[in-house]
Design goal:
Elements (H helix, E strand, L loop, with lengths): L1 H7 L6 H23 L1 H9 L15 H71 L2 H6 L2 H19 L3 H21 L1 H48 L1 H6 L3 H53 L7 H42 L20 E9 L8 H4 L5 E9 L3 E5 L6 H6 L9 E6 L2 E2 L5 H6 L1 E5 L9 H5 L8 H10 L3 H5 L18 H15 L3 E5 L7 H15 L3 E5 L3 H4 L4 E6 L2 E6 L1 H7 L2 H9 L4
Parallel strand pairs: 3-8, 3-9, 6-7, 7-8
Antiparallel strand pairs: 1-2, 1-4, 4-5, 9-10
Helix pairs in contact: 1-11, 2-4, 2-7, 3-4, 3-11, 4-6, 6-8, 6-11, 7-8, 7-11, 8-10, 8-11, 10-11, 16-18, 18-19, 21-22
Amino acid sequence: MRNFFRILRFGAPYRHFAFLNALFNLLGTVFHLASLLLFIPFLRLLLGQVRPVHDRPAELWTRDGLEGTFNWFLTQQIEAHGQMGALLVISIAVVVLFLFKNFFRYLALVAICNFRNRIIKDIRSRIYDKLLELPLRYHTNERKGDLLSLITNDMQVVEYSVMYYIEMIFREPIAVLLFIGTMLTLSPQLTLISLLLLPISGLIIARISKSLKRKSTRVQEKSADLLARVEETLSGIRVIKAFNGEADMRRRFERDNELLTRGSIAMLNRQDIASPLSETMGAAVMAAIAYIGGSYVLGDNPTLTGDSFLGFIIIFSQLLAPIKGFSQGWSAITRGGASGQRIFDLLAVENSVKEKAGAQPIAGFNERIEYRGVTFAYESAPRSAASEGRTAVLQEINLVVPKGRSVALVGTSGGGKTTLANLLPRFFDVTGGELMIDGHDIRDLRITDLRALMGIVTQDSILFNDTVANNIAFGTPGTSMADIERAARIANAHEFITRLENGYQTSIGDGGNRLSGGQKQRLSIARAVLKNPPILILDEATSALDTESERLVQEALLKMMEGRTSLVIAHRLSTIQHCDEICVIDKGRIIERGTHAELYASGGQYRRLCDLRRPPR
């Protein structure tokens, strides 16, 4: 229930919709109750028990005043039009009252629809904003399937299992109070007995609802596993087919699917038993009330008239529906509490890469980049030797990159090259030492200003399901087509773009899958060129390309690097030979540094790397 009220806090800006819903539900219930009360004079008329009233009561807003006024009006109608005429008037009045009841019910539904869906929209936006806010460290540790399940399956559970029943939680008590108040005016004793019998069914349903939350938690976990399996399949479909892995993946999927199905069946069985059970218990209570009320009518000293008793039974039968709805809403909210908890757990995750209060702006890059005694360890990895006596990913890195110079990082896989580059745009924060730009620790700078100084081209060309032009202009809104075309020419991409079906307005598909690897990489370079950053980070930008594509991309990279400060990660000699300095990184340390010629002549680790990568004669 705590999660339910936390969800309701998102509705503060839309509370006027909640107020309108409560008002319209109140009016609708009043007209519903009035239509039911008309059945009492209707029955009296049929049974010939109407007591003539020729004088209109002076007091109106009392029980006797209302009843006397209605009987006076009914007497007037009988005398003027006969009993059939009076019956027609009552029948028309019932229709009119039901019309007003349903009109206000519709207005209440419109109000709660706005309230419910705007809350869901805001929660969904908060989740997406949180996914964008969280650092790469979080996304590295979490499965994409879990996050996708959170914003799809869990949001759906919250929307239909919690938000859908918000109105029931607030509407039904209004109806219950009005119905009980009316029953008290008809027969206080019978009302008291009925209120003593009703909680019995409520206790049984509450026991069922308590177990729904546990079942729902397991179902959401299994649903996340299944979604992760599908996402994994779609991402690796090429490898699955290449290695004839369809049977193995199908077997894994069927296992997850079976576990989800069993959990769903168990949860729904518990959920579905609540409705028939509550209906059966309601029928039992109704029978007991009918038997006891019958004794008040048929006893030696009757305390209740037959028509009032039938009116009581009619109203009591209507009382069961909101009680049943309330119990269903409570069960749904209990079930949705598990999904709500998962959502709030995500929103509560701390961002480890935070911008300091009063962070300094930075508009340009003027002097140098400096790694000063930098140490780094991932959260899931052992901490630094300096702090805890254990091996870190990077250890005591000291490196200066003057403005306009290019520095290459080489070494065996897992040595820490990409991690070193990822520290510069603050994808991660150093765990020891300082990383400086123009003498300022980057942790003291505004993150958006810092990243605005940098253009990044990675081995995996990350493109979006949009047009060529919008992919190149990503992150730089308002860019003219002339600037986009100029960036494409520098990236050696203009020629192939013009050959596409719709040129720069061609949609490239999911992840750019309609383009070749070299074409996607050149679009990534064009995107970085358009940003016109003073600092470039090139992470294995040519490693996945064929010879012809590598040549075109390499030419584009060289043009882009002119006059810019560059941090280059590469294995191919063609990419790093032109760099002003080459640093060899091994096990998180810089073990060699110098130009290509100097390092090759020294015969150290760099020479061995070059010899290993030189093609055989």
